[in-house]
Write a structure and sequence with these properties.
mainly alpha; about 65% helix; about 210 residues
Length: about 210
Amino acid sequence: MTNIKLADTTKSEMTDEELVSFAKNGDKDVLEYILSKYKEIVDIKVNKYFIIGAEREDIVQEGMIGLYKAIKSFNIDKDSSFKSFANLCVERQLITAIKTSNRQKHMPLNNSISLNINAYDDDDTEMMELFNSKTAEDPLDTITKKEYYKIIGTKIDENLSAFEKQVLNRFAKGESYVQIAKQLDAPIKSVDNAIQRIRKKANKSIITD
């Protein structure tokens, strides 16, 4: 694992593929730099989806998780470019969120979008094909989400209240709103509000870095 820390000027002169190599080797500063650099792309993709009953930050975080997955799984020897790979991973994560919400009604998205549009920017797969596939979350997907929220939690720790830290810790472990509320002896609405605040602080932290 590398212990080299890159200056901001050095980062801006490197290719995305080179940056990803540092991030995959444990450089958290570079990881956060990539997350910040691609935040605008995530925002643009999120705007393609209609949201009902959920804060926009919910969907943004799903997109950011997709970006985090791209960083973790990018293979410079097999994948053409990180930008293309990241776009694909973000799109897939957002679509997975839609499928999960349709099944669990935990984070409802508007499913009235056209099912005939292309799911991804760079192939001909249609939404309908994806909705017809299995919707069970991959265990690896769950682990990746936990890793992402752990990183975000560390980054914004000083900006969280004691209650928000407790909520985030349990949320990162995969507990539902109901489970968290029961464990913390708090109303579900309070847990929901805390998570929304955490997501807003996370997004603000990434944007302002």
